[in-house]
């Protein structure tokens, strides 16, 4: 009995401290642009814990990042998208919505679309209104 309690305590401590993160694979998010060839798209993505900075995307150059979703299924990355005379926001990875380990997005003028390798465009989303960003208001 004592041995099984010790094992349970050890496993729980691994999960809580994140040491068991290697059990869960990394997720890759890639962002592509379908804006005109001459248009440069500036993307800035963040999570609660990470600020990934500004990145430039063109019709020929994508940008992506990898991370480990947290054990509690609350991982959220939100991004701003800017190009001449336009500024939009979107939750590029929401663990409650996205079940992909390789999430490929293409940005169109009217919103981002998630791609599926076998079917092409899987689902398109409208840009977020400022009051709809993330799970908590941005400060």
From TrEMBL:
It holds the Pfam family Self-incomp_S1. It comes from the Eukaryota. It is found in: Secreted. Residues 1-21 form the signal peptide. Its main location: secreted. One of its GO terms (cellular component) is extracellular region. The keyword Secreted applies. The keyword Signal applies. One of its GO terms (biological process) is rejection of self pollen. Keywords: Secreted, Self-incompatibility, Signal. Belongs to the plant self-incompatibility (S1) protein family. This is S-protein homolog. It comes from Eucalyptus globulus.
């Amino acid at each position: 009995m004592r041995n099984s309690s010790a094992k349970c305590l050890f496993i729980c401590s691994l999960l809580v401290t994140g040491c068991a993160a290697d059990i869960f694979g990394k997720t890759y998010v890639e962002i592509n642009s379908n804006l005109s060839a001459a248009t440069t798209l500036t993307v800035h993505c963040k999570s609660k814990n990470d600020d990934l900075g500004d990145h430039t995307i063109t019709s020929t150059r994508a940008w992506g990042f990898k991370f480990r979703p947290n054990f509690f299924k609350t991982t959220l990355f939100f991004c701003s998208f800017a190009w001449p005379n336009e500024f939009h926001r979107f939750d590029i990875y929401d663990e409650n919505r996205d079940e992909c380990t390789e999430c490929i997005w293409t940005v169109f003028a009217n919103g981002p679309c998630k791609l599926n390798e076998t079917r092409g465009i899987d689902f398109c989303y409208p840009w977020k209104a400022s009051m709809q960003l993330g799970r908590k208001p941005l400060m």
